[in-house]
Design brief:
The structure is a single chain. The protein is α/β, with parallel strands linked by helices. It folds into two domains: 153 residues, Nitrogenase molybdenum iron protein domain (Rossmann fold); 130 residues, Rossmann fold (3-Layer(aba) Sandwich). 40% of the residues lie in helices and 12% in strands. The strands form four sheets. A four-stranded parallel sheet has the order 10-9-11-12. Helix 8 packs across helix 14. The longest helix is centred in the middle third of the chain and has 22 residues. The N and C termini lie far apart (51 Å).
Length: 330
Amino acid sequence: MGKFVRWNYIFILLLVLISLVGCKPEGEKADISGSYTVTDIQGTTVTVPAKPKRILTMSMSTDEMMLGLVEPERMVAVNSLLDDPSSSNMVELGKQVPTKIKYPSVEEIAALQPDLVIEPDWGDLSRVAALRDLGIPVVVCKGPKNLQDIKETITLLAQAVGESQRGDILLKKMDEKLGEIKAKVAEIPQSERKSVLLISLMKDYGGAGCAFDEACQLAGVINGAAAAGIQNGQIMPKEKMVAINPDFLFLPSYNNHGEVDINRIRSEYIDDPGLQGMKAIKNGALLMPDEGYIYNCSQDFVFAVQEIAYRVYGDKFKLEPQQYLSAVER
C-alpha cells in the first residue's frame, strides 16, 4: 500500500511540473528546453532560443518600450538620441547602454551579436531576411502611430523577450496614469478649452490622425491643425496658420546634441511679418514643450498627454522632466 501511494504521489508531481512548464501567456509558447516562439505582425513565427540578453531594436520608440520591460544591461545598443535631453525622457537609462546606433547596416548589426532584433514596420524591412539568414531572431512590430498601436506593440515586445507579465504591468501603469489625467481634464469647462498649433521640424506632422493629435484630445486641448481639417502627412501653409489663429504655438527644441540651429528654425515663424497678427504671437504664448514627451510613441505617450495639458493649463498637470514608466523592479 505504501509503494502505491508513493508512486501515485510521484505521478501527480510530474503532472504538476508538466503543467507549470506549459503555463506561458498566450502568444508566447515555450518548450522544455527554455526556447519559445512568438508570432510577429507579419505572421512569422519566430523562435527565441532563451530569454534574450543582447537585445537590439531599430527605433527610439521601441528602445523606450524595451527599457520599460527589461534591464538596460540586456540591451546591446540603443538609438543615438536616447541620452539627448532635448529628445529623450530616458537620458539616464540611455547612458547605461554604452553603444549607440543610428542607421546600422546588416553587417554592423551582426557585429553587435544580438540574440534578438526588433524591427518596426516603418524601418528598413529589407534587412529582416538577411538577419534571419544569419541565425538572428527578428521580430517585426508596428511602428506605433497611436495609443492602440503602442499597447499592441508593448504586448508583442513583452512576449518576444519572455516578459509577458511585465508587459501587463506596463499597460496597467499606462491606464492608471491616463485615468488620473482624464479626471483632471474633465474638470475643465468646454468654454475654457484652449487651442494649440505644433511647429515641427517634420513639416507634415501634427495633423489629424497622428499621436500628437490623439494626445491633444486626451489632454482636453484643441489641435488647431486637425480642427482645420489638416491630415497628418499634409504640409500646412503659413497662411493657414493665420486662419487657425491658435491660443498657443508649440515651438521645436530638438537640436541633435547641439548640431541643429534651432533658433534659426524658430525665427522662420515667430519673426515672419505675415504671422504677427496671430493671437499666440501677439500674446507671447510661445511654448517649447519637452519633445521627449510630445513625440513619444512608447508607454510614455501618457506623459505626452500630461505635458500638453501642463503647458496649456498649468500646474494642475505639473510634470517634471525625465519621467518614464517601467515594469522593471530595480
